[in-house]
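Researcher: Predict the fold of F-box domain-containing protein.
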Amino acid sequence: MPGPYNVKRIKDSDLCFSDSVKQNTPASKTKSGLVLISKVSDNSCDNPILPGLPDDVSKHCLALVPRSDFPAMGGVCKKWRSFIKSKEFITVRKLAGMLVEWLYFLTVDAEGNESHWEVLDCSRDKLHQLPPMPGPVRAGFGIVVLNGKLLVIAGYSVVDGTGSVSADVYQYDSCLNSWSKLSSMNVARYDFACAEVNGMIYAVGGCGTDGESLSCAEMYDPDTDNWTVIESLRRPRWGCFASCFEGKLYVMGGRSSFTIGNSRFVDIYTPKSRTWSQMKNGCVMVTAHAVLGNKLCCMEWKNERKLAIFNPADNSWKMVHIPVTGSSSIGFRFGTLDDKLLLFPLQAGPSYRTLLYDPNAAPGSEWLTSEIKPSGLCLYSVTIKA
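Model: Structure tokens for F-box domain-containing protein follow.
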């Protein structure tokens, strides 16, 4: 799981989008001369999205606007902003062939003191820092991407020397470049597994307020902004992670209070029947993982020179050698972009570069180096299509 991070408040000129619009901000000029709109206008919901056009045509027109202009569009009126925030907006963008992948990083400086979220836009040549996330600094949180939004879920924080486990959930809207708070979970937890399955978010296991291992699980419905308790695991599990394959939730890695050492059991939840099943062919002590296509890529702590690839179609594993020189314990964080796997080294140094793995390349050409890298060491990376 990602470690703790801090965020710094930044200037308007440093925001992800140079023409971002803030609500409830007096109209003024930035250093670049851009004018900020004072607030979202109170246009009636009965007014058309674009005068003289049916709303379905207007929605298609808005969906064709470049992604970097979305925050400014959200400041035009409430109806525009509501549409841009909606799941329908992403759907219309997809139908229009306009979805674009942007790569987001949670990075920390070399000393491990300051960290922040940043984004690499579609131009691939410039990093932009995101607005700071609300809430206290935390560790052991979960991260899920859904409908063009990034959710940071629960975790552990220390405020004024007192530690506490959180059930809070914060959402970053990648289209509007803004954070908001969602409904809290039923159970506060950290070091748990979470993933999106069929448009729902699942949180499983972890550690609770007293540090006890948890077996409970719950599901979040973004349409109702509500968390619902589902059937628990057969045994407590913490330090695990989750992925979605073929409409099912796969929970791997971590430990259970009922076993000695790390668990190789894979817990599989089927939403249709609302039941759990198990298989034994899992992985242990995973330091990085990412879903690439219909397969899971993992790196285990005991062997950081090989990529373990899981195929859920036949529950098989394939080992791929990582062509890295230098320290055998360099360690990586994973990211995905354009159906390729990015490996970001966890050590700084001139000889360490971002590796790129292309599973569809010709034999012998699967590995390349990439110029893509965060401004600091990568704690976590996600790709958001919007």
